[in-house]
Each structure stands twice: as structure tokens, then as C-alpha cells.
Amino acid sequence: MTLVLATACATKVAEPWHKFAFDGWNDKWYPAHELLEYSYGDKYRMVRASVITPEHPINEGKSMLPPSTGVNGPMPVGEFLFVKWRIKSTGEVVEDRVDLRQRLPKDMTDHGLTFVIEGKQLYVYVITPKVRNSDLSPNKKTSSSRYRETFEIYPTNELSR
């Protein structure tokens, strides 16, 4: 009796090491805004959370998500960023979905993505691995711009691809 083993080689798209993080405390959008849901793409469950959907039982019964998180490592680059929040003073719920496909660098290796909420406006930033020139003042709404070159990619797009 001859046993033949077949092996298959699956080709996997490279997942660059990069970071998705936000910090409502340091970026000063929390506690005036309460985060309800976010999703950096839909291919990696570690960069999605919601207080609304049943597939996130850890958040059941909570009225908001924590105002900060961070995930870094090799992961799929998101095609979109979705954020839903509540303006605490009015109770108004706002959401925004940003198509990232033409806004992110062609190679996200060692880069980061973050967002800032200001009223009804969402701001999205790419943080590069390049150390910021200390002679220049950080002119971004995110605290990440204190140490690294940072580009607003939404609502304006300062990044040349």
C-alpha cells in the first residue's frame, strides 16, 4: 500500500506591520464625545468594536466604548474607517465612513492610523515612522503629531502618495 500526501501552498497577501490607535483623552475629544462604534476595515476583528451589535458581548449594556485603544502588528490594511459617536452635550449621534483606498500611503509598513472627533467632524491622520523636526510646531489635532510626522488624510488630504 502506497500512501500519497498532497500538500497545497496558499498564497497570502502580505500584511504590513502597522498600527491602528486612538486616544480620546490625549486628543481631547473625550468626554465631550462618546464613542459608540468603530471599524478599521472589515478583515481583522481586533480593530472593530460596537456597543450596539450582539456580536460584541463584552460591550453589552455599556452606553459607550472606551475612549482609547491601540492595535499594532502585521494586519490587513483597512479599505475604510467607520466611526460612530455621540455628542454628549446634545445627545446627537453622528457617524462617518471614510474610504481609505486613495488616502493611505501605498505601503503602510511602520505607519499608524488614528482619528480625532470634533463636534460633527471626524479627522483622520496617518502617522509616519519619521521623527518630527522639533523646530516645527505640531499643528495637528492629534497628540501623535508631537513626535512623528503626521498627515491629515480626512477631511482634507495632505498626503501625497
Average the pLDDT over all residues and give the rounded result: 86
**Total beta strands:** 9
Strand residue percentage: 35-45%
Which structural category do the helix and sheet elements fall into? mainly beta
Oligomeric state of this protein? single chain
Summarize the structure.
The protein is an all-beta fold and 161 residues long. The protein has strands spanning 17-23, 33-40, 48-50, 68-74, 80-87, 93-99, 112-118, 121-131, 148-154. The protein has a five-stranded mixed β-sheet with strand order 4-1-7-8-9, with no helix packed on it.
Secondary structure blueprint with pairings:
Elements: E1 17-23, E2 33-40, E3 48-50, E4 68-74, E5 80-87, E6 93-99, E7 112-118, E8 121-131, E9 148-154
Parallel strand pairs: 1-7
Antiparallel strand pairs: 1-4, 2-3, 2-5, 5-6, 7-8, 8-9
Give a quick set of tags describing it:
40% strand, five-stranded mixed sheet, 161 residues, four-stranded antiparallel sheet, 9 strands, mainly beta, disordered N terminus, globular
What does this structure look like?
The protein is built from no helices and nine strands. With 161 residues, it is mainly beta. The chain has a five-stranded mixed beta sheet with strand order 4-1-7-8-9, with no helix packed on it. The protein has a four-stranded antiparallel beta sheet with strand order 3-2-5-6, with no helix packed on it. β7 and β8 form a beta hairpin. The N and C termini lie far apart (59 Å).
